[in-house]
Specification:
alpha/beta, 259 residues, binds D-glutamic acid, 17% strand, Rossmann fold, globular, 2 domains
């Protein structure tokens, strides 16, 4: 089974490129269209209804570009809207959720930390996931302000450093040995986080798992691209082109579009 249409991805902004990187690394022959809805970031502070509305808008844009499947490269949109997306549209959707399971099953101290948005931590899907690990102490922390700083291109700022110290200290003090990054923006903070946490604490994010799952779905349901022509990687933002270009190390052309 072959299918030469692109894979669509969307996020509230530039963070989902951390997922795009993993997918592109695993599936370089696939064409992709990435949508950064930065004008509406952060999703994490919005109501469930607003997140569903924005997720449908993004999905429809990608469907109009003939995407063969959609990766919701945003934990907040997945935990609040994936059910509605799957119900409403007739193509496969892959979501991203905080990787609690590998952290909880491998933890020696039986204590793990999770850093995510308010929208993710307050969602029913997250609650159901956490409930499965009753004997593990899960220290939840909302990353207030982190997405905004990343969207402003301030990953290495002193404000960022101060916020991370504030959010991570209670987890370190409570002896966690894993920290789960439950927002697709946060993998870009790993170098800073490593400077703050002791070496025995491991950081987990969901990027690789989502890429593997994307490959499985292409294999089982959708079809891989089969063409001698080079794959195309398209990036759209409805806000500042520069921030998205920079996070992509200026390797790809970014186009501004109203969607
Ligand atoms: N990147 C997103 C996530 O994975 C959303 C962050 C936000 O817009 O609040 O949750």
């Amino acid at each position: 089974m072959t299918n030469n249409n692109p894979i669509g991805l969307f996020d509230s902004g530039i963070g989902g490129t951390s997922i795009w990187n993993e997918i592109h690394m695993l599936l370089p022959n696939e064409s992709t269209i990435y949508l950064a809805d930065s004008i509406n970031a952060p999703y994490g502070e919005k109501t469930k209804e607003e997140i569903i509305h924005l997720s449908c808008k993004n999905a429809e844009f990608l469907l109009n570009q003939n995407c063969k499947m959609i990766v919701v490269a945003c934990n907040t949109a997945t935990t609040n809207a994936i059910k509605e997306l799957r119900h409403k549209y007739d193509i496969p959707f892959i979501g991203i959720e905080p990787a609690i399971k590998p952290a909880a099953t491998n933890s020696q101290t039986q204590k793990i930390g999770i850093l995510a948005t308010k929208g993710t931590l307050n969602s029913e899907l997250f609650y159901k996931n956490v409930e499965k690990f009753q004997d593990i102490k899960i220290i939840e922390q909302i990353g207030f302000g982190l997405v905004e700083l990343i969207e402003d291109g301030k990953i290495n700022s002193s404000e960022m450093k101060d916020l991370l110290k504030k959010y991570l200290k209670p987890m370190i003090d409570q002896d966690i040995d894993y920290i789960v990054l439950g927002c697709s923006h946060y993998p870009y903070l790993i170098p800073q986080i490593k400077k703050i946490i002791p070496k025995n604490i491991q950081i987990i994010d969901s990027g690789e798992a989502v890429a593997r799952q994307t490959k499985n779905i292409l294999n089982e349901k959708v079809g891989f691209r089969n063409s001698d022509e080079k794959s195309t990687q398209i990036f759209y933002t409805n806000s500042d082109i520069k921030v998205l270009s920079e996070i992509l190390k200026n390797k790809y052309k970014v186009q501004k579009k109203d969607f």
